[in-house]
Structures are given as structure tokens and as C-alpha cells.
Specification:
five-stranded mixed beta sheet; alpha+beta; elongated; 45% helix; 224 residues
């Protein structure tokens, strides 16, 4: 059945206008973006196919152009539009973090990091450098690959903190395995970085482990 044949209150666009975007499922939101389905499938059906194939919205955004094109009804133009929406979302969250104290909106930081790291298939270590008001000055990728105590050099993080005149930092890295749990190497690295930064009076506010849409906070677990 085509979406136009659905009751008005169940159609994604009408539902969004009447009840707000937050009330829609991932499939319904994606269907609004897709606009049309394919023969035998509505836009919602096609959206569900994408979510089933890639596991989540983050998985869809992280998929390559070739992977997206393999889904019937998708093509290069849809891939480009998806990437544009994804990047706009990331930039909007980054702007908000630059304008306010991140400690007053920890969920915003988690949302940004999930968008930034959640769908990656390789491990990445990033640092958010913050000013004295806990606003993000800049975020930088410091390492890509398997994370160990020796893979991220404390002197490089200290050097960048001084260059940015940062008062504090937040670390984050992803676990492509999908498990948001800290390892012994994660703990050792965090301790080494914290010690090095303490010498130049830069505080470590948190270290997040990101796995898909899940995050683990070192600060909340009492590991800092």
C-alpha cells in the first residue's frame, strides 16, 4: 500500500507536522528523506530495508557509496544527500558545543561523538580541546588504528593543548566491535595522558568509549 493511501495521521509527513519530529521512528524519518519508494515498496518499507541492512542510522551514514547503491531504489544522488544531512547534523552539534559549557549538556557531547565515531569501521582517537568556560575550541583526530598506551603520544596531546591554549580536554575513541567497554589499554593510556597534561595544568574532564549509539564515560565510572 502506498503511503498516500494510509490514514492521514499515520503518514510520516503529516505525523511530523502534527506531533513533532521526535515522535517519528527512525524508519519514518528516513522515509521523509527518501520521499518515494520503489515498485512494490513504500518509502517506509525502503527505509526499513536500509535500517535492516546497515543496522542503524549511523550505519547508513557510514556506508560507502557502493554499499548504498547496492540497495534497490538508492543511487549516487541519495548517497550525496545522506552525507550532506549527516555532515550538517555534526556541524550543528559542534556549533552548539562551541557556544556553551559542555558540562551542562553532557548528552549533547555523547550525541556528537556517536555521530562522529559511531559508524566507523576503524578505531580512531579524538581529543576535544576546551577553553576555561568548558566550550569546545576545536576537536582533532590524534590517532587512527588499534589503540594502545604507546599508540597515542602524550607529548603530542600536550603540544596541541598548549597550541590551542586549552584549559581542559575530553578524549574519545570508538570500538568498531560494537562493545562500549573500556579495556586495560584504554585505562593505561588515559592515566598516562592525564599525568602528562597535569604538568601543564590542563584537566582531563572525561574519556568516552563509543560503540555505535552507545557510549561509556570514564568519569561516570570513576576511572579518572
Amino acid at each position: 500500500m502506498a503511503i498516500t493511501d494510509w490514514p492521514a495521521g499515520e503518514r510520516p509527513r503529516e505525523k511530523l507536522m502534527q506531533q513533532g519530529a521526535a515522535t517519528l521512528s527512525d524508519a519514518e524519518l528516513l522515509a521523509i528523506f527518501l520521499r518515494v519508494g520503489v515498485v512494490g515498496k513504500s518509502a517506509v518499507d525502503l527505509a526499513r530495508d536500509l535500517l535492516n541492512r546497515f543496522g542503524s542510522l549511523n550505519g547508513i551514514f557510514a556506508a560507502s557509496q557502493q554499499e548504498i547503491a547496492e540497495v534497490h531504489g538508492m543511487g549516487s544522488s541519495k548517497y550525496v544527500q545522506l552525507q550532506a544531512i549527516f555532515e550538517m547534523s555534526r556541524r550543528a552539534l559542534a556549533e552548539q558545543m562551541q557556544a556553551r559549557d559542555v558540562l551542562t549538556s553532557p548528552q549533547q557531547v555523547r550525541d556528537y561523538l556517536c555521530l562522529k565515531l559511531g559508524g566507523l569501521v576503524h578505531e580512531v582517537f579524538v581529543v576535544l580541546f576546551l577553553d576555561a568556560q568548558n566550550r569546545v575550541l576545536v576537536q582533532e583526530e590524534m590517532f587512527r588504528g588499534t589503540l594502545t598506551q604507546t599508540s597515542v603520544y602524550p607529548r603530542e596531546v600536550v603540544k596541541r593543548a598548549l597550541q590551542h591554549n586549552a584549559a581542559s580536554v575530553i578524549f574519545a575513541h570508538n570500538h568498531p566491535s560494537g562493545v562500549a567497554e573500556q579495556s586495560r589499554s584504554d585505562e593505561q593510556l588515559t592515566h598516562a595522558l592525564k599525568q602528562a597534561l597535569a604538568l601543564v595544568d590542563v584537566r582531563v574532564l572525561d574519556h568516552f568509549v563509543v560503540a555505535g549509539n552507545s557510549t561509556l564515560s570514564f568519569a561516570e565510572k570513576g576511572l579518572l
